């Protein structure tokens, strides 16, 4: 029996390839989504994981999600947020 499940690395590579085609331009997530392999949930999980590391940049405009490649500043901010101690109320 072979395992045909898409790995995180495959989803990430396909996402980066799609984003690299347009350079620094924002792209609608809905336009990229069909180009990625794997389940809908896994694609969303990978997008969030990459955003949390600063490797992609996300925003929402009029209810529509847009994504672009992150830069060094995005990665620096993500690292600072990970290192921050949460406040307990």
UniProtKB/TrEMBL annotation:
<protein>
    <submittedName>
        <fullName>Uncharacterized protein</fullName>
    </submittedName>
</protein>
């Amino acid at each position: 029996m072979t395992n045909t499940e898409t790995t995180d690395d495959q989803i990430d590579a396909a996402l980066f390839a799609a984003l690299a085609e347009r350079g620094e331009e924002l792209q609608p997530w809905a336009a990229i989504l069909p180009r990625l392999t794997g389940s809908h949930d896994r694609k969303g999980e990978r997008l969030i994981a990459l955003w949390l590391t600063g490797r992609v940049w996300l925003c929402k405009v009029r209810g529509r999600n847009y994504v672009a490649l992150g830069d060094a500043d995005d990665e620096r901010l993500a690292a600072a947020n990970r290192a921050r101690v949460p406040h307990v109320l």
